[in-house]
Amino acid sequence: MAVTRTFSIIKPDATRRNLTGAVTKMLEDAGLRVVASKRIHMTREQAEGFYAVHSERPFFGELCDFMMSEPVVVQVLEGEDAVTRNRDIMGATNPADAAEGTIRKAYALSIGENTVHGSDSEENAKIEIDFFFKPEEIVG
Ligand code: UDP
């Protein structure tokens, strides 16, 4: 299995509850290495641009407001089959459906305030990494 990269966000519900370290530990324990990380307060332009794929969905406005409500931590994660590994440790979008041992099972508050974002494909990982990071900010 090849070493690849994925993009992660520790969302406002987690930074608000001081869970940045706890969430990062679960990512690291799952075999992912943090090769870039920064705490930012998303602008509306960033939130709407990042989630543009969801712009027609009924929850789009609420989702963007939430992502701008408190700081987030954006990260690049590296590891074997990083996209799938990260999706597995994140758990299902709705915490009610998330498996034991996953981040969302442990910490998510609702389907919206669900603690973490993770890219859903290698193609999207590249796009999302480029959205928030310059190449020199990533130190493998
Ligand atoms: N979301 C929401 N309501 C929904 C579905 C999704 O608020 O009914 C939010 C939630 O924060 C989710 C994000 O929109 O993480 C992106 O949705 P997606 O279906 O891509 O889920 P994910 O890939 O994050 O599991």
TrEMBL record:
This is Nucleoside diphosphate kinase. InterPro entries: NDK-like_dom, NDK-like_dom_sf, Nucleoside_diP_kinase, Nucleoside_diP_kinase_AS. It comes from the Bacteria. Its cofactor is Mg(2+). The keyword Transferase applies. Keywords: ATP-binding, Cytoplasm, Kinase, Magnesium, Metal-binding, Nucleotide metabolism, Nucleotide-binding, Phosphoprotein, Transferase. Its EC number is 2.7.4.6. GO terms for molecular function: ATP binding; metal ion binding; nucleoside diphosphate kinase activity.
